[in-house]
Design brief:
about 90 residues, alpha+beta
Length: about 90
């Protein structure tokens, strides 16, 4: 992960990868993880302060090109397109 070989970033810009999921899985962070998932997220969702993106199931792999075309054309906004490889 991180910046691929051959990618030139502008002066003053750096790229790096940080995997945060491992922090949630670390038993040393159990109290924080519990707070995030069972207090904070439940509260903001219940108070309608955070919304889950709507999802559109496009179908199987034969719909991948259509999904890509919609994305490239800018016809998708705040929506998750889902391709189900085993749908066909």
């Amino acid at each position: 992960m991180g910046v691929r070989a051959g990618v030139n970033l502008p002066d003053g810009v750096t790229g790096f990868f940080a995997q945060f999921l491992d922090d949630y899985m670390d038993p040393a962070n159990a109290e924080f993880t519990g707070w995030v998932w069972w207090e904070y997220l439940e509260k903001v969702l219940a108070d309608d302060q955070m919304h889950v993106l709507p999802s559109r199931i496009m179908g199987g792999l034969n719909q991948a090109q259509l999904a890509w075309d919609l994305l490239r054309q800018g016809r998708i906004s705040a929506e998750r397109l889902i391709i189900q490889p085993n749908a066909e």
